[in-house]
Amino acid sequence: MIPARFRTIAVVAPAGRLVDEAFDAGVDRLVAAGKEVRIAGHARGPSPVRYLSAPAAERAADLAGAWLDSEVDLILCARGGFGSSQLLELLDWNALARRPDLPLVGYSDITALHFAMETRGVGTPVCGPMLGKLDVAAGDRWTANHFAGALECIPRELDHEVGIISTGRAVGCPLVGNLTVAAAMCGTGFLPSAAGRIIVLEDLNEPVYKIDRCLTQLRLAGFFRNAAAVAFGKFSDCAPAEELEELFRRFAKAFSGPVVTNFPFGHVFPLVSMNFRQRMVLDTAEGIRFI
Prior knowledge:
Blueprint: E1 8-12, H1 20-32, E2 36-39, H2 56-67, E3 74-77, H3 93-96, E4 103-106, H4 111-120, E5 124-127, H5 134-138, H6 141-152, E6 156-157, E7 163-166, E8 169-172, E9 174-178, H7 179-184, E10 198-204, H8 208-220, E11 229-236, H9 241-253, E12 259-261, E13 274-275, E14 280-283, E15 287-290
Parallel strand pairs: 1-2, 1-3, 3-4, 4-5, 9-10, 10-11, 11-12
Antiparallel strand pairs: 5-13, 6-15, 7-12, 8-14, 14-15
């Protein structure tokens, strides 16, 4: 699932703490695949705050240490939750720029780090399964193949039916994230430009009015203004499908490019992994592919 050239994998917890059973299962799977696993010092805690893996300074130091370790080929986040944004002002982005191609794998709350990486031009953001979901991902051939494909930037078809809100064709690198986290980046200096990008958004356990609020905030911030296309992923446990469909249709009226729904990305499987550096073609007549 993780290609052979990624031999040494650092595990960090920039947000929440993963329960021990899932943590151990993920590490065991990496070791069984022949990987050398380097676990950051505070990836398992402890933390004085229940929903964080450790204090922000310690989480930032863990991430920087893994990043600047020249033997590390890939950084894998343990889980999401909340807390990644607390690291952004603590990291030395100039130092991290020494390794411009290092992949950082995660999604959900890791959106904050991925977006910051884009604004600072460092590393390679990859949306893909985190440590706690490696067993599930490995058991789903479609998900596993797309994970390997994203890490190696292998051309491939999406091979998944999406819903079409607005027709058209767009080509661009994906800009992928959790909607709520993306909206929270407005005004921070860490919200990247989406010009020419195919935006992919997902969320979990949010009522429709909060999804509308976040889309409105991003629209007012100019986030969608010059984007090439928008793909709405899975909005699990959020709102009735018909309410979401209506919201996305209203959104599309103010957006000039193609808009699709039911894109296979979110907090459920199958999960398509995406490399921010690999271009996509989103064509509502011919399908979606990575090139």
